[in-house]
Specification:
Three copies of one chain form a homotrimer. With about 350 residues, chain A is of the alpha/beta class. In chain A, the strands form two sheets. A five-stranded parallel beta sheet of chain A has the order 7-6-5-8-9. Chain A has a four-stranded parallel beta sheet with strand order 2-1-3-4, with helices on both faces. The first copy, chain A, has 13 helices and nine strands. The mean pLDDT of chain A is about 95. The termini of chain A are close together.
């Protein structure tokens, strides 16, 4: 294949790409899933290097990006910035500009993961990715930052498309619901889901206990997307009501915004107290839906976020979506980096 | 090559495979050693991902498995579970089932290493591998657990076959002898050697100072294997006597079962005291043998476990067996994972 | 390509190779830079394993060596010796001989990085590489030790050749100048530069504040090289004078020899005090030169070692030289390891 129209592009949030561009990636991901290890895909990035920067550790993201590179003929370098002497206000070191410019000489692309507990204030992680993107001559891919998680969003959409057999999500209802859990989860997967699925025409119900507000800018944009599509957007603080008529339930713990003030260790203690035991996704609630699919970005905190019966039930897409991470990552790497 | 009869199989202990199956692997390993880097082998797992889970660090095992994957056209991901949030009785996290099912979507196989100091009680490491095997859709390979080390056992057999020029080990005598040393070694290599070599018809003498008993279930099975083959099995607590007439001497330190009660740090202190200086494999003892080969899984604690003269002498197979690790691992990966 | 005349050779310091041999590597590096990812280069080390031992962490060296292996079809294993149980005077473990001999069975070559803070006395790092080289059956490549950094030296020369369009450096003047900085840098890049550029016929001025002497043996050899070439060699303790008429300015911080006595943490404190603010490479000083090129091995401590204006100016070769690291490493790996 030659260079695609997406050659050289970054992917930091799905909203940075048009729906047509996202569709191109999703179509190629489906083709790659059907025809895995085909000769034509195995050479797309042959001999190339993809750099993966993990400011935060990760299992699934690391495994799936590293495998994606391998399946395209490339090699993904696993890099942890404890070994990087980057310049900060506190210490001497290398500027992001120097790091990005040098890596652009070695690599065909750079993936970065940085979450809330490695930054000073909300948004700084996403800003760091955009700073890299400003200096790098190669694509910057967001492997999850404090705001967005575009490959999770794409994998979710690919999962629903696969199960529903249609790209037309209009008239379908997404319940994006907070779950209690023993870990304080990032906002990125949830916010990405709200942004991309609202653009695709879904009705969106966002449900969470008071005190668990997300980024108002993201919520505002999701609402505007729904309005532009003539779809419904609502926020409820009710553990059950939102399930009514849902076509897909995305149940997932997330931390409260207070964590940014009080610290993430304190937030983890709060979450461990499991104060909202009614906020679990279970069969009783799922019966209120329109045979909804169950989505979760994994790892699943079973027994807290969701019961085993739902997570392992026939409507659960968790393993399918986890696999899709690989395929959407391969597709985007091929489209943005393939010569 | 197409799929072998071993496609999809786990290898957790050599006793899980028939002698015919082990022979298939050993034959392919020899072919791969003779014809390393041949075009036909370089593509067997092209573009595939092999996951390596190191609950315990390792040098040789990591190097040889990672090289094995490379030489088959695959890529081995080096994963350390400090980065994995697995569910335990103490903490929330991902279940082994979820981890195994997702990894099966990304990888053609999973290797796991977990030794005695990362578990609560003897046998839990091996049990964890079998739990993974119960859930994974791809082969689980044992890269050394608290009980067994199948690839070491296969590499040992390959080494003896190579030197003796025969697959028929009947009538040959193995001395499996404890050595003093400054490190408390695992039981896995020694137990695997007892199990596989007793099946191959060797006479087995197991020698160790009192207090260094191994797993009675394994010893019972080795004894039964010898009986079934009409071979001799004996246990002696004598640093010298067992050498008499041996064809192969496998001298290696191992920890006492007391380590499981008192803790591994305490055991290391005990071993460092080097209380059994007569339990060293040296030239004087080797003279009592029938020009025995010397085996050791490395790393060798020279001057304690064995003298330099023996370890670097003409009958020593240590480097040859270390190289064989690569070849048997390649062969088993090819047989269990090659399409 | 078949085996080159350099097949099997180590590269620990450029002075271990003849100028003709270095020229062979530089020519191949240039060819590889012009024709990156060509089919002929992608297969040179196909399926081979290159071992990288990082006693000290590194970013650029790791990235560029790992990418070099990838671009030759090989795989570079990233190894940190905290996982290695090497024998020392204090502790039991594996001998360098055993480690080197086993790795020679798995790998086509071994790279080692070990700097001043992981050794007991100056020279021990370089001595360790030579001990490995004495036992290994495959090439040992120096990825920076306490004395030398041959690939940095080659990348520097490649950068100057590229910009000047000539291999003839006679009559050109190198200013090798100490810079103040908040980090205590190793001597290796600077000493390698003095050794190789003095062999190439350049006039050399070495400038540093009193108390920052380098290895007298290296200085003596650089001086002798200049004399043999009829070139000038001088040492000055003046932050400005040496710039006069320079064709290339290599400005870089380095630690004082006192660090070997007082410890590296103390040295870092001393450097952080930034007691020599006049020792910065800036535009005013660069105006005294003959439109000199600016060299630095990166990472650059901007604002201390050099101003942004110089480091990012048109005469700066920093990114070009960083890229050249990849190409010279590829070339040397191909020449010393390619079958």
């Amino acid at each position: 294949m030659g260079r695609s129209p997406l050659y050289g592009r970054d992917l930091i949030c799905t909203r940075d790409w048009s729906l047509e561009e996202l569709d191109l990636a999703l179509d190629l991901a489906s083709e790659m899933k059907r025809d895995r290890f085909s000769e034509s895909h195995l050479n797309i990035l042959r001999g190339r290097t993809f750099m993966m920067f993990f400011y935060n550790p990760s299992v699934r993201t690391r495994q799936s990006f590293e495998a994606a590179a391998t399946e395209l003929g490339a090699h993904a370098q696993f890099l942890e910035p404890r070994a990087m002497r980057l310049k900060t206000s506190q210490s001497a070191g290398e500027t992001v500009e120097d790091a990005a410019k040098v890596m652009s000489r070695y690599a065909c692309g750079i993936g970065i993961r940085i979450l809330e507990d490695r930054i000073g204030a909300y948004g700084e992680g996403d800003a760091l990715l955009r700073e890299y993107a400003g200096h790098a001559a190669v694509p910057i891919l967001n492997m999850a930052d404090d705001r967005f998680h575009p490959f999770q969003g794409l994998a979710d959409v690919m999962g629903m498309r696969g199960r529903w057999g249609t790209k037309d999500f209009r008239g379908k209802k997404l319940l994006q619901v907070w779950s209690h859990g023993a870990l304080a989860r990032s906002w990125c997967s949830v916010q990405e889901s709200l942004l991309i699925n609202s653009r695709l025409g879904m009705d969106v119900t966002l449900a969470y206990p008071k005190g668990y507000d997300l980024d108002p800018e993201v919520i505002g944009e999701a609402k505007a997307n729904c309005q532009a599509n003539g779809a419904r957007f609502e926020i409820v603080h009710d553990a059950v009501g939102g399930y009514d008529g849902a076509d897909v339930v995305y149940a997932r713990n997330w931390m409260s915004p207070a964590a940014y003030d009080g610290g993430f260790d304190k937030e983890k203690e709060i979450q461990k107290a499991l104060r909202h035991p009614d906020w679990i996704c279970d069969t009783n609630k799922m019966r209120l839906t329109d045979r909804a699919l169950f989505l979760h970005p994994m790892p699943v905190d079973r027994g807290h976020e969701v019961t085993d019966e739902v997570a392992s039930g026939p409507q659960s897409l968790i393993y399918e979506v986890a696999e899709n991470r690989l395929h959407v990552q391969k597709a985007v790497m091929a489209l943005t980096m393939g010569e």
